[in-house]
Structure formats: C-alpha cells, structure tokens
Amino acid sequence: MDSDLRVIDRPAELAYRLYAGEREAGELRYARQGDRLVLVHTEVDRSLGRQGLGSALVRGALDDIRTRGLEIVPRCPFVRRYLERHPEYTDLVADPES
Question: What is the pTM of this model?
Fold first, then answer.
C-alpha cells in the first residue's frame, strides 16, 4: 500500500476509512454481528477513481480484520470481486452454515 495511504477502523461509525495524506478518500461500511463483520458497501471519492484506492481500502480492512481474528460476510459486490481476485483472503469468509 502506498505509504501516504492509511486505512483506519472507526467502530463508532461502523466504517473503515481510507485516507490519502490528510484527505478522506473512501469508506467501507460494515455491520457487526458478534465476531463477524458484514461488509456492506465500499465507496471511493469519484475524483480519485481509477487509482486502486478501493482495492487498497479493502486490503487494509481485511488485513486488520485478520489481525483481530474476526470473520467477514461479504455483502458488498466490490468486496466479493476483490475476494475472487485475491483468494488469500477467502479464509476470512464466515461459513454460512455456522
């Protein structure tokens, strides 16, 4: 991830925020269900589109989620597409049967 990009969890807002320098560049909204985060919507500032910021946001969030020992329920289409391209994160997906 570019060194001036930061992904920060804002639990009170139920969102991961992506910062490019001091500018907020995107967010990944989620709902909390016990030890699971339901990832519901990813959005990046349109003026900053096509720079890989959405992927950087999802990657940063997933890395944090893995560190915290949580699972995900990927409802967001962007997150689902990211997981298809990055199978190294599929172990985070919660078993739908449990």
Answer: 0.90
